[in-house]
Amino acid sequence: LAASRQDIVTAAETLGLTRVLRFVSSIEAASHFEREPEGSESVGPSFHVAIPVFDWGQGAVPRDRALLRQKQQRFIALAVEIRSQVRAAFSRMRAARDRADFYRS
């Protein structure tokens, strides 16, 4: 149950990142070195951000939202199954105790 809860937290964090980063398709950071024909050199950092024109990530957010709902429903189903198994085990234990009391008396 704890692992399933952690899956929900991870899916929620993923959904948050997807919402934030869906407008940026790629980010690159690098170093820059260029030699000019006159003999001078330029060195420094380089940063490139690709802004999508056609793909705005419309499919990523609903997909991650659906995955989050799926994990939440799986968590609820698992909790119900665990409670059912505990009730069944308690019932078996109660019956065994009643039998032992009957045999003793």
Largest sheet: 2 strands, antiparallel
Quaternary state, please?
single chain
DSSP summary: helix tally: 2
Number of strands: 2
Shape: rod-shaped
Proportion of beta-strand residues = 15-25%
Rg = 29 Å
For the terminal residues, how far apart are their CA atoms?
A: 41 Å
What keyword list fits this structure?
alpha+beta; 105 residues; two-stranded antiparallel ribbon; single chain; 2 helices
Give your account of this protein's structure.
The chain has 105 residues and is of the alpha+beta class. 62% of the residues lie in helices and 19% in strands. It has two helices and two strands. The chain has helices spanning 2-21, 60-104; strands spanning 26-35, 41-50. A two-stranded antiparallel sheet has the order 1-2. A hairpin with a 5-residue loop joins strand 1 (26-35) and strand 2. Helix 1 packs antiparallel against helix 2. The radius of gyration is 29 Å and the shape is rod-shaped. The model has no long low-confidence stretch (mean pLDDT 86).
